[in-house]
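Quick review question:
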């Protein structure tokens, strides 16, 4: 298994990135300014985009695991890799996500704690309703971990 930074063609991972963020125009807002990491374990299993948000804060903008490889530890491996990578340059790692019964428990299990909420983020910024596990996503929930 290896995790590497993609430096040439980030858009070739768009299908995988769209699993974690359903609107391509939203992905394009952070993809170019972010760093894309790829987890390869006999094939691409997961990707993660990290951005610098200033004031010592890095943000996971997108973490996607191929559906065939979910619940096998690849998401957690990617989060641990990113935490270790970001410790060198940042004080805090944050992630923004919908108030979903799938993602909130995952990030809290990885050590993140709720920080703040941006009301109506999904309803104001996406061109159609976004549902995850049957839940309509409205607010962006930010979780943080000190590095």
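Suggested answer, residue by residue:
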């Amino acid at each position: 298994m290896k995790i590497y930074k993609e430096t040439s063609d980030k858009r070739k991972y768009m299908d995988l990135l769209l699993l974690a963020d359903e609107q391509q125009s939203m992905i394009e807002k952070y993809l170019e300014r972010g760093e894309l990491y790829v987890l390869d374990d006999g094939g691409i299993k997961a990707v993660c985009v990290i951005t610098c948000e200033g004031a010592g804060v890095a943000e996971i903008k997108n973490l996607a695991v191929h559906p065939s490889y979910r619940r096998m530890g690849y998401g957690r491996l990617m989060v641990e890799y990113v935490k270790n990578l970001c410790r060198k340059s940042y004080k805090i790692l944050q992630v923004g996500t919908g108030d979903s019964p799938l993602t909130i428990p995952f990030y809290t299990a990885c050590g993140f704690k709720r920080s703040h909420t941006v009301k109506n983020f999904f309803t104001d910024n996406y061109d159609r309703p976004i549902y995850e596990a049957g839940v309509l996503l409205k607010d962006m929930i930010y979780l943080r971990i000190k590095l």
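Why it works: The longest helix spans residues 74-86. Helices lie at 14-20, 24-31, 74-86, 103-109, 121-125.
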